[in-house]
Design a protein that fits this description.
Blueprint (H helix, E strand, L loop, with lengths): L3 H11 L4 E3 L1 E2 L4 E2 L1 E2 L2 E2 L1 E3 H14 L26 H16 L5 E12 L2 E10 L2 E8 L1
Antiparallel strand pairs: 1-6, 2-3, 4-5, 7-8, 8-9
């Protein structure tokens, strides 16, 4: 059996460097410098990918595959009990993030519902190390 560290290293060697356009999370816009998008790589790229995947409703936009995005919207404003919502949200989160080959696990998941808002937090274990996230949906 290969040690987890060794398998992550092997996987990192087979995947190209993860790249994304830098994102201004507060203003919800891409970052540009001198008219060109700023590109981030590795762990920073995965932070952008995670943020966008969680916020993109799954199945809504033809530009994305049906595997991309989250289904959190289906929990909001529904008559489901809090227990059902709290049980389903971690599954939705894992389904959303684990389609990315750079993400190997999702742990430390915390979910809370207040009014019509959902907060999800956790740690994505990636081939570049751990990425923590805390998102209000």
């Amino acid at each position: 059996m290969i040690a987890p560290e060794a398998s992550q290293g092997a996987q990192a060697q087979t995947l190209p460097l993860c790249r994304e356009v830098a994102w201004d999370f507060e203003r919800d816009v891409p970052v540009f410098r001198q008219g060109e998008p700023v590109v981030v790589t590795g762990k920073e790229a995965l932070k952008v990918w995670i943020w966008r995947a969680i916020r993109t409703p799954r199945f809504r936009y033809e530009i994305y595959t049906w595997a991309y995005g989250s289904e959190f919207e289906s929990l909001l404003g529904q008559a489901y009990t809090d227990a059902v919502k709290t049980a389903e949200a971690p599954r939705y989160l894992r389904e959303c993030l684990l389609i990315n080959p750079y993400i190997t696990a999702v742990k430390n998941i915390a979910v809370s519902f207040e009014s019509a808002k959902l907060t999800v937090a956790g740690t994505a274990v990636t081939i570049y190390g751990e990425v923590e996230f805390h998102e209000l949906i």
